[in-house]
Fold these 2 entries.
Entry 1:
Amino acid sequence: MGPGMNSRGEVVDSSRVEAGYGQSVKGLRDWEGEITGKPAPGSKFTQLQIGMPMKQVTDLVGQPSDQGAYLTGKAFIPFFFGSDKHRQELVYKNQGRLIFAGGSMGDIGSAHLVWIIHNASEPAYR
């Protein structure tokens, strides 16, 4: 198992989870992403699909308890014009985290879901 996970494949510390230890999936409109951990009982995250726009996700699962944004390493590659220069992270208490890519810093609503991190013990804040 990867960092932040226990031997049963459950996420115990979302802040330590690294990409590549979950299940790779191809989602809506050919968006590629990852699902890490196991959903909490009754989790709203099971309604989600990789590639969903942020607005659709928040309409389905509600507003997060916390959120933040960060740059990826691709932001520092000259002449990189792809959609993964920064990411938006939404935190849902006792559910996990949702990571979005695309959009722009001023227009995060056009970002799409690329990573679902299930964590039944997720705290309310990052």
Entry 2:
Amino acid sequence: MEKLLERLIYTSRWIMAPIYLGLSLVLLALGIKFFQEVFHILPNILAIKEVDLILVVLSLIDIALVGGLIVMVMFSGYENFVSRLDINDNDEKLSWLGKVDSASLKNKVAASIVAISSIHLLKIFMDTRNIPNDKIMWYLLIHITFVMSAFAMGYLDKIMKVKE
């Protein structure tokens, strides 16, 4: 009975596979939004103010960072929790594939969240004339919380590696 239960629990990891596949659909949606924004800005490129163009570019960078985060979580999560990806050496294999364990994935996700938050905060600072001061304060506090959390997770992982 115990053997069957353990086998069932181990096999249940495959429930995550459709979730990782679903992330590829989210990636597709981000790609559509990215190009929608690019095609929206191109006809107005000569008339748009520099600040507004920078805000659009920061939004595009934000989308690219989120897309990279999705790819990292999708591939690393699948490899760490479901099954190895069988990719031939002649195919374009990502150099980090198979080398990101769950601890480093957690740190990479935290660093990506800080980068995304930084871009968002930069967009806020570029548009301070339209944003109330109390909201700017909250954006700053949230960003500092992300930074401190990422730092704490990295520091704790460093301590744990020294103990091993």
